[in-house]
């Protein structure tokens, strides 16, 4: 199977022959991948395989050394993360990037607060209501949109971070190890939320070290090893043994 | 759904209510023990408010700096440089140029602090520790330690002893600074970004907040507030001297911390800083009326500040 799977619906994100080098060190070599709306693709590989570099390239933190990125068919080149964000790409970082002493609703609108005319005063009521509606819809079980982040559990925080990405993303959400720090029940809850995002017609790229999770969640699996793209498999047509041998390079 | 009480508490900025209880307790203590020494007279109470006006305005600037996770130690020196700059310019030129010189000096020093902190990535503690000494030296050398009189009646009325509609101008300046400071801090996007940056700078950065620009802004706000405080001192004392603002560093930092602003950022209160500043002024006043010697005043004030800070830190950092 080739790295590019040909499909009828045009992809949301097309990465073609992405190459990234830091000085003389090659981090990503000739990487190509298409992501369609409503699809979850898992990115797997050992530590140092280049997964995080790839996330940073897609989210505009790093520019690729060569290769093209197309969003809805249009070639884009992001000079920073806020450009990628305004194009509808959101990242859920491993550390969640939440402000602990602030309420949930202020985190959801962090950097993009709603204000009222004419004095530009914060519209806390509107932000609270929108946040409450969204967390209810996604079934993120938090005490209220007004709860402080530091009073929430790890799973609830992850839920808030994903809700924030969902609120702003119009095309693509990148999830970096969303359940690495969570217990079993919380992981199941977060996976349920991630699944529900497919119905919102978003493309999702998820990094995970848990193959069980990858097989539960993803439609396709893309394997990286030392910056090289080893291959892309449809989750339904492969098994753990194949993926493990692709990750490790041992047959 | 939403907790009503906490919404009201946030609206009126009542986080860390210890400060308000402490304020009332100390007020009652002085009111009873100093009843015969004139503590409760209108004249004495209004004196307290007038004397704390410059410190309150410095404290408001510091709330922004601390909330953003930075610190400013140089504001006391800025006060002296600004007051002297205004007084020196007004010897030759009109009042307007004096005001511009005073505020401009404050903003300029704030800008120097800010550029080093925001763009050269130097720790604000060390930068402002250095500029504190540097500009204390500048203030001394500006006029060879001489005091410069401020003769413009308009200036001294506007910034010092005058009043509008029966309200002393120092009270109006304090009120204006508190109201504007509170609205910007609590109700504007800028204020929200300041608080978020102090809480988690990386989260602020990845959320599109221009963190370096914001750090520059808060240090310039602090510089500008110190500049205004310098004008108020010059107006009230009708003179500028290098010693102005020299003794305000500890008082203002204590006022801000006692007022519920976290020393390591992410949380603060402008109203709390006002109450903290009035508390410090009241302490000063009460200890003098009690007839304590200057050295005893310093010891007692130090102990009370220590206690107040310890209590309010317990209150603001409980996990």
TrEMBL record, chain A:
<dbReference type="GO" id="GO:0016887">
    <property type="term" value="F:ATP hydrolysis activity"/>
</dbReference>
<feature type="domain" description="ABC transporter">
    <location>
        <begin position="13"/>
        <end position="251"/>
    </location>
</feature>
<keyword id="KW-0067">ATP-binding</keyword>
<dbReference type="InterPro" id="IPR050107">
    <property type="entry name" value="ABC_carbohydrate_import_ATPase"/>
</dbReference>
<keyword id="KW-0547">Nucleotide-binding</keyword>
<protein>
    <submittedName>
        <fullName>ABC transporter</fullName>
    </submittedName>
</protein>
<dbReference type="InterPro" id="IPR003439">
    <property type="entry name" value="ABC_transporter-like_ATP-bd"/>
</dbReference>
<dbReference type="Pfam" id="PF00005">
    <property type="entry name" value="ABC_tran"/>
</dbReference>
<dbReference type="GO" id="GO:0005524">
    <property type="term" value="F:ATP binding"/>
</dbReference>
<dbReference type="InterPro" id="IPR003593">
    <property type="entry name" value="AAA+_ATPase"/>
</dbReference>
<dbReference type="InterPro" id="IPR027417">
    <property type="entry name" value="P-loop_NTPase"/>
</dbReference>
TrEMBL record, chain B:
<keyword id="KW-0812">Transmembrane</keyword>
<feature type="transmembrane region" description="Helical">
    <location>
        <begin position="163"/>
        <end position="185"/>
    </location>
</feature>
<feature type="transmembrane region" description="Helical">
    <location>
        <begin position="298"/>
        <end position="314"/>
    </location>
</feature>
<feature type="transmembrane region" description="Helical">
    <location>
        <begin position="270"/>
        <end position="292"/>
    </location>
</feature>
<feature type="transmembrane region" description="Helical">
    <location>
        <begin position="47"/>
        <end position="66"/>
    </location>
</feature>
<feature type="transmembrane region" description="Helical">
    <location>
        <begin position="73"/>
        <end position="90"/>
    </location>
</feature>
<feature type="transmembrane region" description="Helical">
    <location>
        <begin position="247"/>
        <end position="263"/>
    </location>
</feature>
<dbReference type="GO" id="GO:0022857">
    <property type="term" value="F:transmembrane transporter activity"/>
</dbReference>
<dbReference type="Pfam" id="PF02653">
    <property type="entry name" value="BPD_transp_2"/>
</dbReference>
<dbReference type="GO" id="GO:0005886">
    <property type="term" value="C:plasma membrane"/>
</dbReference>
<feature type="transmembrane region" description="Helical">
    <location>
        <begin position="12"/>
        <end position="35"/>
    </location>
</feature>
<keyword id="KW-0472">Membrane</keyword>
<feature type="transmembrane region" description="Helical">
    <location>
        <begin position="216"/>
        <end position="235"/>
    </location>
</feature>
<feature type="transmembrane region" description="Helical">
    <location>
        <begin position="125"/>
        <end position="143"/>
    </location>
</feature>
<keyword id="KW-1133">Transmembrane helix</keyword>
<keyword id="KW-1003">Cell membrane</keyword>
<feature type="transmembrane region" description="Helical">
    <location>
        <begin position="96"/>
        <end position="118"/>
    </location>
</feature>
<protein>
    <submittedName>
        <fullName>Monosaccharide ABC transporter membrane protein, CUT2 family</fullName>
    </submittedName>
</protein>
<dbReference type="InterPro" id="IPR001851">
    <property type="entry name" value="ABC_transp_permease"/>
</dbReference>
């Amino acid at each position: 199977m080739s790295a590019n799977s040909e499909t009828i619906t045009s992809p949301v994100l097309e990465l073609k022959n992405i190459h990234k080098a830091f000085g003389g060190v090659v981090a990503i070599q000739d990487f190509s991948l298409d992501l369609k709306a409503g699809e979850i693709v898992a990115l797997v590989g050992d530590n140092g395989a280049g997964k995080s570099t790839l996330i940073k390239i897609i989210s505009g933190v790093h520019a690729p050394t060569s290769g093209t990125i197309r969003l809805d068919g249009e070639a884009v080149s992001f000079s920073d993360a806020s450009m990628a964000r305004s194009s509808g790409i959101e990242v859920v970082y491993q550390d969640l990037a939440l402000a602990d002493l602030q309420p949930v609703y202020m985190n959801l609108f962090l950097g993009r607060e709603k204000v009222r005319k004419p004095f530009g005063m914060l519209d806390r009521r509107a932000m609270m209501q929108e946040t409450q509606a969204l967390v209810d819809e996604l079934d993120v079980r938090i005490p209220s949109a007004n709860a402080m982040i530091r009073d929430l559990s790890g799973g609830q925080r992850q839920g808030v971070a994903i809700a924030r990405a969902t609120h702003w993303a119009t095309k693509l959400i990148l999830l970096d190890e969303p359940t690495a720090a969570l217990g079993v029940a919380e992981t199941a809850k977060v996976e349920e939320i991630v699944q529900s995002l497919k119905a919102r017609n978003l493309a999702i790229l998820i990094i995970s070290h848990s193959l069980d999770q990858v097989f539960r969640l993803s439609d396709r699996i893309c394997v990286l090893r030392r910056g090289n793209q080893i291959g892309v498999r449809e989750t339904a047509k492969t098994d753990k043994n194949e993926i493990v041998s692709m990750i490790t390079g041992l047959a | 759904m939403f907790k009503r009480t906490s919404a009201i508490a946030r609206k009126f900025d009542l986080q860390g209510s210890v400060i308000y209880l402490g304020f009332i307790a100390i007020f009652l203590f002085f009111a009873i023990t100093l009843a015969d020494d004139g503590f409760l007279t209108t004249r004495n109470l209004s004196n307290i408010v007038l004397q704390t006006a410059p410190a309150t305005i410095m404290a408001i600037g510091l709330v922004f700096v601390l909330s953003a996770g930075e610190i400013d130690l140089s504001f006391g020196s800025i006060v002296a440089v600004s007051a002297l700059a205004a007084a020196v310019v007004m010897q030759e030129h009109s009042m307007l140029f004096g005001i511009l010189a005073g505020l401009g000096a404050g903003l300029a020093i704030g800008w120097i602090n800010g550029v080093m902190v925001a763009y050269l990535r130097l720790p604000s503690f060390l930068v402002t520790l250095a500029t504190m000494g540097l500009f204390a030296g500048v203030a001394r050398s500006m006029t060879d330690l001489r005091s410069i009189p401020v003769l413009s009646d308009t200036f001294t009325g506007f910034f010092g002893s005058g009043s509008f509609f029966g309200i002393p101008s120092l009270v109006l300046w304090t009120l204006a600074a508190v109201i504007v400071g509170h609205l910007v801090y609590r109700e504007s996007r800028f204020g929200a970004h300041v608080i978020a940056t102090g809480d988690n700078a990386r989260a602020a950065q990845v959320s599109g907040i221009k963190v370096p620009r914001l750090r520059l802004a808060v240090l310039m706000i602090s510089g500008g507030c110190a500049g205004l405080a310098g004008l108020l001192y010059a107006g009230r004392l009708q003179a500028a001297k290098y010693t102005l603002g020299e003794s305000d560093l500890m008082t203002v930092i204590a006022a801000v911390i006692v007022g519920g602003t976290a020393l390591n950022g992410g949380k603060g209160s402008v109203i709390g800083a006002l109450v903290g500043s009035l508390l410090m002024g009241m302490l000063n006043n009460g200890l003098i009326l009690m007839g304590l010697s200057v050295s005893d005043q310093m010891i007692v004030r130090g102990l009370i500040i220590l206690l107040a800070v310890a209590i309010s830190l317990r209150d603001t950092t409980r996990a």
